[in-house]
Write a structure and sequence with these properties.
The radius of gyration is 28 Å and the shape is globular. It has 640 residues and is α+β, with helices and mostly antiparallel strands. The chain contains 31 helices and ten strands. It has three domains: 380 residues, no CATH class; 96 residues, Regulator of K+ conductance, C-terminal domain (Alpha-Beta Plaits, 2-Layer Sandwich); 76 residues, Regulator of K+ conductance, C-terminal domain (Alpha-Beta Plaits), CATH 3.30.70. A hairpin with a 2-residue loop joins strand 7 and strand 8.
């Protein structure tokens, strides 16, 4: 009897569920019938443009050359195949003159002016006095400050300025920097979604939206959604995320040499009285070798010397610290009159000399550095900066051998022995991020107010449509230079040319995707799989698909590729295309589960000692949460 009742109840529940779902299923079926009639036929043009997209994605992941250079080839290919791509010479070059490209170039310079004024550093310097050694308070404060600043200036220079501050804050307060750097990067991405100026993706998406649906973004058009997204991210980072972030860097260790496990590669030797090297310079004796071996430091009668050592003449009794694998060193010193001092263990205190200003530091290579794609030898780095290279950290690995021929990428970390003079030179160069306290000049409040006043003027002029955002930001650049907040030569250094080249190459690709029907075809294929769902669910699927793509390639490339597809999908199911544009825009800046998907993640990858899976563990849950939150609030605010 009981089993029969259970069966009846079960059948009734199934019936009620089907009755509830019938209207949704019926509407979805009608939508499916409507857009299947609109599916474009596959043709040669779609095949060629699709092949270009696939090739481009593969090259972006493989990255045989910087992605900016890869993108520059796109206009050439589009014109060469214009019979099928339908892209004219003018359209192929439109990326260079595009208002989005101009605005983004100007925003890099405005961000440099804000940095030069000391506004960002001033806030960063207040961190320790406010948070003390309270870890959760540190995470919350870093997230709040970074998000606020990243909402009004480009988020990449914000992270570049904060990385050394946050790292040293952690070390001084006995908090693992690993606990603080992921929140720093994530907060910059979340804050970048609050206003139009927060990230280059917003500006680019606005231009694409204007071209496709005649609806550019207003300065604060999506601010209410951005604040909700930032709020959700903030709560996640100070609660669940905080416990998921591992402590990869142990704060107990005060020695970078120990952190890098350098003990196997640093050895002290002594020059004997009968050495055939006596009277030769170090450059003559050591530089013309086929062996991976470098002299890091010389000690003579208690005085230490480091780079440049080439001209130093070798004398009996000199002590040399050599970086080499033990087997390489043993082969070299054979019959050379050199004695190993195995009883002396090289430590950081021995290499550093506070009197002469010698110090071991970490230097991060940012994405806009002239060092990316180069080797140490290519740019004569050690000679140019009088530094000794000890090791290179890349991704989760550390390289100790063949360092001078190691091809550098953004996110790599160099372990260097430098002098105070070298440290200041590196700090003044935008091609490096110094992982150490560097003495900086006192910033005047007048400069800070002036820089913020210029930025505020740009925002007001653009938001009130008095002048276009491109002209407003260019005016801001002129004002920054005129007030000496940015020196003329700094204008060129401040611009991330890889981003500029990427936009210049990909904007015409977006035109080809739209004009050839490729966007419509891809949208129809996606809708064949997802079209049975209600529009809000399809919106969520497009959001998450974009998130997966932006974790693999750059955020700007994802926006260019996905916005035309999303707009066509919306039109095919009779939905609001602007809602789909917004979903893709927010998703393109949500690369939380990959260190390679977003520039700021790469910048903290090495300094935080992270592993690839750390980003998946911390970022994937946040991506899933936002894949629900963003489509839901887009449907509430703008309708679907």
């Amino acid at each position: 009897m009981f089993m029969q009742v259970k069966k009846i109840v079960f059948i009734l529940l199934i019936g009620m569920l089907l009755a509830c779902l019938y209207p949704v299923i019926s509407q979805a079926a009608d939508n499916l019938n409507n857009y299947t009639e609109m599916i474009p036929k596959f043709n040669t043009s779609i095949a060629i443009v699709g092949s270009i997209i696939i090739l481009l994605l593969g090259l972006f992941v493989w990255e045989p050359v910087p992605i900016g250079i890869i993108a520059l080839a796109v206009p050439v290919i589009l014109v060469a195949l214009n019979l099928w791509t339908k892209v004219s010479n003018e359209q192929a070059l439109s990326g260079f003159s595009n208002s989005a490209t101009v605005t983004i170039m100007a925003m890099f310079v405005l961000s440099r002016g804000i940095q030069n004024s000391g506004a960002v550093q001033l806030l960063g310097n207040k961190l320790e006095s406010f948070t003390g050694d309270n870890q959760k308070k540190q995470v919350g404060t870093i997230t709040a400050i970074t998000g606020f600043i990243a909402s009004i200036i480009n988020n990449t220079p914000v992270v570049a300025a904060f990385v050394p501050m946050v790292t040293n804050l952690g070390r001084r307060t006995k908090v693992s920097p690993s606990k603080l750097l992921i929140p720093l990067s994530y907060a910059s991405m979340l804050g970048g979604t609050i206003t139009l100026l927060g990230t280059s993706t917003n500006i680019l998406a606005s231009q694409v939206s204007a071209r496709l649906i005649n609806h550019p973004f207003g300065m604060f058009e999506f601010t209410k959604l951005g604040i909700i997204v930032f709020g959700v991210g903030f709560i996640y980072l100070v609660t669940v995320g905080y416990y998921l972030i591992p402590e990869r860097i142990k704060v107990e260790s005060k020695s970078l040499l120990k952190d890098y496990k350098m003990e196997k590669f640093l050895t002290e030797v002594k020059i004997d009285d009968n050495s055939p090297l006596l009277g030769k310079s170090i450059g003559e004796a050591f530089k013309n070798l086929d062996k991976d071996l470098d002299v890091i430091q010389m000690t003579r009668e208690g005085e230490q010397f480091m780079e440049p050592l080439d001209v130093k003449t070798i004398r009996a009794g000199d002590h040399l610290v050599i970086r080499a694998a033990k087997e390489t060193l043993l082969k070299f010193i054979k019959n050379k009159g050199i004695s190993l001092l195995l009883d002396i263990k090289i430590n950081q205190n021995q290499l550093e000399d506070s009197v002469q200003g010698q110090k071991i530091i970490e230097v991060v290579i940012p994405d806009n550095s002239f060092m990316t794609g180069q080797t140490i030898n290519n740019v004569n780095f050690l000679e140019r900066y009088d530094a000794s290279l000890l090791a290179i950290k890349h991704n989760e690995k550390i390289s100790y051998k063949n360092l001078k021929s190691f091809r550098l990428k953004s996110g790599n970390v160099l372990l260097l022995l430098v002098t105070d003079a070298t440290l200041k030179r590196l700090d003044n160069n935008m091609s490096f991020i110094i992982e150490d306290d560097v003495e900086r000049p006192n910033y005047s409040s007048s400069k800070i107010f002036l820089a913020l006043g210029i930025l505020l003027s740009v925002i007001i002029l653009a938001s009130m449509n008095i002048i276009s955002i491109a002209i407003a930001t260019l005016g801001g650049v002129i004002a920054m230079v005129a007030t000496n907040l940015v020196k003329p030569n700094e204008v060129y250094e401040a611009i991330n040319w890889e981003v500029v080249f990427l936009l210049a190459g990909l904007i015409p690709l977006g035109v080809a995707i739209e004009q050839t029907g490729t966007a419509q075809f891809i949208a129809s294929q996606l809708l064949q799989v997802t079209g049975i769902f209600p529009p809000v669910v399809i919106l969520g699927i497009f959001y998450y698909f974009t998130v997966l793509l932006t974790n693999i390639i750059s955020n700007n490339a994802t926006a260019v590729l996905m916005i035309p597809v999303a707009v066509n999908a919306a039109e095919q199911i009779g939905a609001n295309p602007f809602a789909f544009v917004l979903a893709v825009t927010f998703a393109a800046s949500a690369a939380f589960s990959s260190p390679i998907g977003y520039q700021t993640n790469l910048m903290i990858y090495g300094p935080g000692g992270y592993r690839f899976r750390d980003f998946i563990r911390v970022g994937a849950p946040l991506e899933i949460i936002l894949a629900i939150i963003v489509p839901l609030f887009i449907s509430i605010f703008w309708g679907i």
